[in-house]
Design goal:
The chain is of the alpha/beta class. It has helices at about 5-20, 60-75, 95-100, 120-130, 175-190, 205-210, 210-220, 230-240, 255-265, 275-285, 315, 340-350, 375-385; strands at about 55, 85-90, 110-115, 150-155, 165-170, 195-200, 220-225, 245-250, 265-270, 290, 290-295, 300-305, 330, 365-370, 410-415. Strands 7-6-8-9-15 form a five-stranded mixed β-sheet, sandwiched between helices. It has a four-stranded parallel β-sheet with strand order 1-14-12-13. The longest helix has 17 residues, at about 5-20. It is globular and about 60 Å long. The relative contact order is 0.13.
Length: about 425
């Protein structure tokens, strides 16, 4: 057995590599199944340092990004820092990953890892072994046919990690698979949903990415349409659910107005949209409808930043929208600069200092997903500055008074 000091050193180095991006040249330490030490996914390419207001997670691709997010949420050294189950999705199946985001929310809070077809990438395998999922009987029979405590949820066709009890969710196409995921989610919650998120399986991924965090935060499942029609699987499920609230994510270039009107036959349709990926994500972050949605229009929030060139980072980061800082997903369209609309939005959220001093103020925190090829060091420095509590005067926050999120006007399409 290794000396305790050496073991602590290995874990510390792994933590540094996974979360702060240092130690890139280190060889990843061996990780025993169920032992719970943090896997050194950062050794595969995590880039850049964390700052006082930002934390960078991930590396050179979405598989590493997902592993880093999963380990940040569930480092695994104690029973309380291990997930019940982990979701596996093929990195080539974008709609499956997006629909699976609802499983990152309550009550399961399952992190997502990516496979490469039937191959298990090293980063995903390390993260799975480090998290050592405890298993849950709430998912029904496992792939072995026994009730079991499923530790891995396979979404569609994906790798099968050996040594774990698995539960598979399948569907003949993206729409049918989304319905199957919705029904599993409903079973976990013990009720059918009264609200669903709808977007296009064939839409531009950059314009549908924000649905991932919204689904994880609200628990509303994602159902798919196509830009110009509603698939039979989705039609049948909407009819089964009855008159519900339908939140359509994306502009008419993603889901046409004709489809929006057709969806009105099954409930009240509200479109949440912006013309560009950055403005679309901001629209989702600002949106609220009663108890549904983020309603992030004031300081004091977690915020998740990803690059539109890595759409799989949306579902990968979904756990950060449902646990810890609970941050909405915001999008950069270039690694090297902030879109002016995003910069303006963040300026509106920048905290000020109350009369009694900044110690009594509110704070923002940014999660940056990916290495510097996704979000450059200069952009990270700009984000750190704009998230910082400023010296400008701010109203003293009420200590015990309840607050109500501000609402934004919504565009509603009825039957």
């Amino acid at each position: 057995m290794r000396a305790p000091s050496l073991r602590l050193m290995v874990v510390a180095l792994a933590l540094c590599a996974a979360l702060a991006g240092c130690g890139k040249a280190l060889s990843p330490p061996a990780v025993e199944h169920g032992a719970g030490p943090v896997a050194a996914v950062g050794a595969h390419g995590a880039g850049g340092l964390s700052t006082k207001n930002t934390t960078r997670l991930g590396g050179s691709d979405s598989t590493i990004d997902a592993a880093a997010v999963a380990l940040a949420v569930y480092p695994g050294p104690t029973a309380t820092t291990r997930p019940q189950a982990v979701v596996f999705v093929d990195s080539a199946d974008w709609p499956a990953a997006l629909a699976a985001s609802v499983l990152a929310g309550a009550p399961l809070h399952a992190p997502l890892l990516y496979s490469d077809g039937s191959t298990l990438p090293e980063a995903s395998g390390q993260a799975l072994r480090a998290m050592a999922p405890t298993g849950t009987g709430a998912l029904g029979p496992t792939a072995a046919g026994a009730p079991g405590r499923a530790q891995v949820i396979q979404i569609g066709a994906t790798a099968t990690p050996s040594g774990y009890l698995t539960r598979s969710i399948t569907g003949k196409d993206a729409a049918a698979l989304a319905v199957a995921i919705e029904r599993v989610s409903s079973g976990l919650r013990g009720r059918t949903p009264s609200r669903v998120i709808v977007t296009a399986a064939d839409g531009t991924p950059a314009l549908t990415m924000p649905a991932a965090g919204l689904s994880a935060q609200t628990g509303a499942p994602i159902l798919f349409v196509e830009r110009s029609e509603i698939p039979p699987s989705t039609t049948a499920e909407l009819r089964r659910l009855g008159k519900i609230s339908i939140y359509l994510v994306g502009p008419s270039t993603v889901v046409s107005d004709n489809v929006a009107r057709e969806l009105g036959r099954y409930g009240t349709v509200t479109r949440i949209a912006g013309a560009t990926p950055a403005t679309n994500a901001i629209a989702v972050a600002r949106f609220t409808d009663g108890s549904f949605g983020w309603g992030v229009v004031e300081p004091g929030h977690g915020l998740v930043f990803a690059n539109v060139s890595r759409p799989l980072d949306g579902p990968a980061a979904a756990p950060l929208s449902a646990i810890g800082d609970y941050g909405p997903l915001l999008l950069l369209e270039s690694p090297h600069e902030l879109p002016s609309t995003l910069s303006g939005y963040l300026s509106d959220l920048q905290p000020g200092s109350p009369p009694s001093g900044p110690v009594h103020g509110v704070y923002n925190h940014g999660w940056l997903i990916g290495d510097e090829s996704a979000i450059s060091a200069t952009t990270q420095a700009q984000l750190d500055s704009i998230l910082e509590i400023s010296s400008r005067p701010a109203t003293e926050p009420a200590v015990a008074a309840p607050t109500t999120p501000s609402s934004e006007p919504t565009q509603t399409t009825g039957p």
